Each structure stands twice: as C-alpha cells, then as structure tokens.
Amino acid sequence: RLHAVDITSNSFRLMWPKLLSQETGYYTLEYAPRDDLARKRTKQVSGAHTSFVLSNLAPETTYEVALIPESNVHYFPPQSTRVTTLPEEISPAQVLISDSGPRSFHVSWAPMLDSVMGYQVLYGPLPGNSVKVLEVDGRHNSTVVENLAPNTTYLVTVTAIYRSGKEKSLSAKACTQEGE
C-alpha cells in the first residue's frame, strides 16, 4: 500500500496509510537504486506523516523503497515498493522556424522547463562565421531574429542554460525570402 505519486526525473512523493501517530513511533524510510543497493540511504519520518518527498534522485533510475514502521505498541511489517524516475527532460528538444521574411524570421522551441534559466539564440549566415547572439529569458520560448540579409540561409542554434550550469543546444537552418 506504499506507493509513489508526483514522479519526476529527480524526485517522487511516497504515500502510505496512517499506521502510527506522533506518540506511537516513527517510520524509517530506506531507498536505493535497484542496480546499486549498496548506496542505500535512510530517512526518519515522524509517525504523524503519511507522505514524504524523496529528492536529489538520478533520472531514469529504478529505486527500491522500504517503509519500516517503528512502533512501540504494535508490530507492523515493512512495506516496500519500486519506483522508476522519469528520463531527464531536455530542452530544446525541437526548434521551429516560422514567419520567414526577407529580413527576419521567428524562432521558437520546446519544451518549456522550470530548470532552464535562460536561452541563447546564435545565428549567422551560411557559409560564414559571423555569429550574433540573442539572450532570451527562461520564461519565453520564442524570439524574432531581425536585420537579416534577404535570400540567405542562416544557421540558428538555441542553447538552454540550466540552473545547474549545464547547457544543451539544438540547431536548425532558416532561409530568408528574396527581397524586393
């Protein structure tokens, strides 16, 4: 009856029925990656609780979890469950170019993630090595690139800067329309 909800790539919430109270004991939570049970970690949780969030977990990992009621009144058997965290979401997973004109085009990307602090949009004509950078706030997932040359192919690279400091990039090609 121990089960997990709100599963993400690095956390989940464990829920269980009320077995103890503040006065009658506490719970010991033990959890470890299934393929590395030696890395077992233990948490003590007050008897008043019926849920607990485990965080700082590895993405795409199956955890063995045991809930051990430590009662000074009754014996309760340990409950166990197995929970697999989600794959780490990566942004940008897709980059879309639209509304292309002679001197501008629209760039958008997905998915939107809370773990991304901001984006850098790099663009430059192909072939060539003159690159310009636009900084975009992490709350936005699109921007307009302007002041371009008509009838030109551009390489556009969107880089997500994560709060953790990690970066992920994805590129797309864009062509401006012929000018008048």
UniProtKB/TrEMBL annotation:
Please report the name of this protein according to its UniProt entry. VWA1 protein
The keyword Metal-binding is assigned to this record: no
Looking up Gene3D superfamilies in the UniProt record yields: Immunoglobulins
Q: Which domain of life is it from?
A: Eukaryota
Q: Where are the transmembrane segments?
A: none
State which gene encodes it: Vwa1
What SUPFAM superfamilies does the entry give?
A: Fibronectin type III
Q: InterPro entries from the xrefs? A: ECM_Regulatory_Proteins, FN3_dom, FN3_sf, Ig-like_fold
